[in-house]
Amino acid sequence: MSHNAKYIHIICTDPRIQKIYHGYLVENNCFGHFDSIQYENPILDFLNPDKVGGIIERIKLYQAMHGPDTVALFDHLDCGAYQKNGYVFNDFEHELAVHKENNEKVKEIIKSNLPDFEVTVKYVAIEKTGECRWLKG
User: Fold this and answer.
1) d(CA 107, CA 25)
2) How far apart are CA 112 and CA 119, in angstroms?
3) Superkingdom, according to UniProt (predicted)?
4) Phi, psi at 44, each rounded to 5°
5) Is-contact 23 76, C-beta < 8 A?
6) How many CB atoms are closer than 10 A to CB 112?
7) Alpha-carbon torsion 56, 6, 38, 32, what sign?
8) Residue pLDDT, tens place only, 9-29
9) Which residues contact 55 (CB under 8 A, 6 or more apart)?
10) Which runs of E-coded beta strand occur in 1-137?
């Protein structure tokens, strides 16, 4: 039996985004069609010289095992991993701009190591109430 996947989802473990992410999986019929890399904001590991090799190797392993051709980055604002890594934001617009800038760098890193992969980015805003909403990327 073949175990093929179309996507590799790279996503944070923050429980606040689970409901919106689950909705995305259902609406886009993703179940059974993706691998995932999920821990406290793994997207930041692409920007860490000590960790980027490990995450690229994991993507290569998943590609060898299941054949995905698209990496989908699910990035959320109000991220504790960003704070832990020393990021300070002036306001919502500044935070979103930094996330977008970082994700452009991540896309370049993925494409330079895995040129056949498509890379998409999905952004989630977390309101003060805890409610989540998708942002246009």
Assistant:
1) 22
2) 12
3) Bacteria
4) -65, -25
5) no
6) 9
7) negative
8) 999 999 999 999 999 999 999
9) 37, 42, 45, 46
10) 7-11, 34-38, 70-76, 118-126, 132-135
Helix (H) or strand (E) holding 81: helix 80-84
What does the pLDDT average to over 116-124? 98
CA distances from 47 to 28, 33, 35 (A): 29, 27, 21
Tell me: domain 7-135, CATH 3.40.1050.10, correct? yes
The DSSP letter of residue 32 is: T
User: Model-level pTM?
Assistant: 0.93
> At 83, which helix (H) or strand (E)?
helix 80-84
Q: What is the DSSP letter of 98?
A: H
pLDDT tens figures, 76-119: 999 999 999 999 999 999 999 999 999 999 999 999 999 999 99
Which tokens is 83 given?
A: 């704070």
- Position 2 pLDDT exceeds 90: no
- Mean pLDDT of the chain, nearest integer: 96
**How many Cβ atoms from other residues are within 10 Å of residue 109's Cβ?**
16
CA distance 111 to 51: 17
